[in-house]
Amino acid sequence: MLEHHARLIAMFDYAREVVGRKKLQKMVYIAKKLNFPFCEKYQFHFYGPYSEELTLRVEELCNLGFLEETKEKVGGYYQYRYILTDEGGGFLKHYEMDLASLKTCVTSMNEQPSRILELISTIMYFDHLAKEEVVEKVKTVKQKQKYTDEEIEEAFRYIEELRTNISAS
Amino acid sequence: MNYKLQQLDEEKVFKDPVHRYVHVRDRLIWDLIGTKEFQRLRRIRQLGTTFLTFHGAEHSRFSHSLGVYEIVRRISEIFKGRPHWNDDERLLCLSAALLHDVGHGPYSHSFEKVFGLDHENFTQQIILGETEVNHVLKRVDKDFPKKVAEVIAKTYENRLVVSMISSQIDADRMDYLLRDAYFTGVSYGQFDIERILRVMRPQEDQVVIKHSGMHAVEDYIMSRYQMYWQVYFHPVTRSAEVILSKILHRAKALYEEGYLFKFEPLHFITLFNDKVDLDDYIKLDEGIIQYYFQAWQEEEDEILRDLCERFSNRRLFKYMEFNPTVHMNAWHKLHTYFVQAKIDPDYYLIVDSSSDLPYDFYRPGEEEERLPIHLLTKKGEYRELSRESTIVEAISGKKRTDHKLYYPADLIDGIHDKGLRKKIGEILEL
Fold it and tell me: Confidence band (pLDDT; 50, 70, 90) for B399?
């Protein structure tokens, strides 16, 4: 019962705090692509992989009092900050989950800017293609982000690092 | 003559209750409609189990797909000659609109959840694989199927084309809101589509709305909001959906433990083995599924038999509001009592959440989460809809989610142990 909610709470438990909805979307997508048991359905959108199911589930967690959402005005737009509440922590105790290797992964992703997570998640979205095709696709669908070759190469390296860390743990 | 340019000698029309007529002049579109993969959509209801709540909701994905095509056809006429619009993309838009749901299966939401499928993958396979659809598309040119697939997958380079089929105010949503409102018989799904189409403007990478058209869009957003809560999220429909998914879970579990079905589930074997291929998939339609649900009412397995009988005869589960913060301990108690009463809680005690549904309402898409609806001012500037409209702002800011606990009241009534029945009844407020 509500296991999918519990897995998300576990992620927030590891992250302590997630700042930005875009960041949150991309973190869960990347974790899912790394075979962590997130079931939220993603589609490709204007800003990369996006899950409406995740948005709604996070909204549910806020409404239940398991997450605290703070809306902050930053420049010309709003930004959302999420923190796990004591009630959320209490809810998590009802579940036994073996997600220890998720902690390193979440901590590392949380340190990345959302722009870079958008790039990483977009690369992973096209991971069924050859590397050259992925690069071409990223440059086509993300023209406006103007990712440099160095950033793209670094993103590939980062994905490998995440995979290596998971296998090592 | 180049196939892409071929027109029918006479325009064909489909009578349609939402758009009055769906007009077809392009040979390509006519041929796509005639393919077996597209015709299969006649046998798949647009709203799955909703007909058990709103008896009129028997319309098919076929009629919805034609409707989306018709809306895009009209938008392309409005866009003709305007900046940012390339008329060479017209047939691509029309084909993608027509085929955007071609990979849907019967009751696809439940099937996807239980068997780990994704109808969008099947849409891609139907467009790119060895199919009649692919054969027709290739007559335009060999790269055309790939382009159509990319538009539907939202990864095509021309973002304007993608946004016509898929955005927060796209042809897909406009058709299904109007069509679903019409067939369910509800009165609150209406909005002025003629007006919205007239105020749509093509921009570099999205469709925007002239600022003067804001009130028509407000109506559309209200309609979306109302339909979400009144139709798509109806608790009775969710009850049917819960039972449906439990039937699939039960049949799969029985197969995996070597149960001998009286009626061998031939159409399900590859699904049960996680090896479903395109040929197997497109053989599935609602008629096939209903046949099995009828046949499985004769099975030895009591749970499968009961669930199929419930679904077929609309003997649905009852429900109560469920708040995990408050009811967690009660749920654990109920789980124990159900086991004691020999009612398997895995199949008969189900929590269903709003996030389990494939529908959404308008979100402003702050901090680049999702592209919002943009209004175009006279100065050529973009304004996000909820920043301009008080009505939309009020709806967008309102968070509404819920969780419901579903259970079989009749089975609980039949528990012989009075004490146990009373304890369950007290928690469920029976």
Answer: low
